[in-house]
Amino acid sequence: MAALGKEITYHDTAGFRQRIALSAITNRPVSMKDIRVKTENPGLRPSEACILHILERVSENVAVDVRNGSTDLLVEPGLLVGRDYAFTVECPPDRGLVYYLEFLVMIAPFMKHPANINLEGITDHPHDLSMDAFRTGLNAYTQKIGLPEMGVNVIRRGLLPEGGGCVQFTCGVLKAVEPFKLIYGGRIARVRGTVFTCHMNAIFGTKTIESARNVLNELLADVHIYTEPQSGEKGGKSPGFGLTLVAETVRSGIVYVADGLIDKNEADQKELTAREKMQPTFLGRRDLGDLIQQKSARKTSETITEKLGREVALRLLAELCEGGAVDSAFQWLPIYFMAVADDDKVSRVVTGRLTQNTVLLLRHINDFLSLRYQIDTHQAALESLVKLPEQKTESQKTESQKTDLDVGEKAADKNSHSGDNVKEDLGEETIYDDEDDDPPFSLAAAEGLQRARRENRFVLTCRGVGLANISRVTF
Description:
Elements: E1 8-10, H1 16-26, E2 30-32, H2 46-58, E3 59-60, E4 63-67, E5 72-76, E6 79-80, E7 87-90, H3 97-107, E8 115-121, H4 131-145, E9 150-156, E10 165-171, E11 181-182, E12 188-198, H5 203-216, E13 223-230, E14 240-249, E15 255-263, H6 264-269, H7 286-296, H8 304-322, H9 332-338, E16 347-351, H10 356-369, E17 374-377, H11 378-385, H12 394-399, H13 401-415, H14 422-425, H15 443-455, E18 458-462
Parallel strand pairs: 1-2, 7-8, 11-16, 12-13
Antiparallel strand pairs: 2-5, 3-6, 4-5, 8-10, 9-10, 12-14, 14-15, 16-18, 17-18
Helix pairs in contact: 1-2, 1-10, 5-8, 7-15
């Protein structure tokens, strides 16, 4: 086993899973001190203790030292071998199973044996991404990045408070990560969705679908939402229902997700559980902004099922306005694997506004790998590659249209990266294509959405260190 690297010390637990995962793959000990000492419940949370338990199950010679009433923690990583057999981990209910699956995605590709792990607990939790949204996004983005196939099979649903859910996670072994570019989101072509109901009448799902379609059909015709009723053992131990919407793009394979959940407690309180509140004020055009503001208005006669469908649909529109070539809930995935990509070329990803989780990940990658990302706004990156033409009058545009086209082509050839077209390299996308006979969005709404997406985009670029160059455990 390779010698341990220099220890890294923190005085909080922000980005707990990121620190443990980076410690495991770089073979650097990590310590966290004074964990929540100023709160009513100091020390590690049950979910964080479960993360450490999972690490111990898939590692050899790992040392986890918890002291002072779990307020001090020291982790000395060992050999990430995995197991050549399936095993089960029972997860505490303070977080959903997606919380633990995201940690497994960060470490499972680096194991010696393919992963085959069953997790039991809450499949859909108000503090985490829904299982359907996570599974759909994971399949889409792992294919774009070139990671080994990862499978998430929902055996049983489980909601608060009693749970009873079970999920099987499988993952192959990662040999290498080729430098990749995730820069083009593409035109939104269709919306697909799933409404699951556990031990509840199917009419709840039908009303939720109608409410969501009332919002989405004003912009898009191709909207299909399917019902997934669960009863008996497959429905878990607690009643509830939830909605997941997925916007799919043309050709690029990028997806954007939004979800909502109503469990037994929420149904009793007549309140909606949501990961984030809607913030439609950043929209770029009045056309789309007025629509969301109008649909966001609270209706006094609205039932809880109608509220769920409407707010999840609005949340999907807000996610589309963020722009970029990756959903905000999955920003961490390409950024994490960009760091370990081969160092022969740079990797690039275009995102919307960076989330707090993404900012923490960038800091932790710098701590463990001494790797910094170049972050530019989309407009700044565009200006650095091609000098933008000055504004012209309509007559000047008509007279010099051919000349500008020739100059633009020469500039693109001169400033392109690795032979790529500048427009493609920057993720310049088209929401509405004039060549389409039947555009999915109304033209006014499409222009507003396109402008909003451009204003919020960032370009992250880095040259990875390569799997062979990180100081991780060698087999």
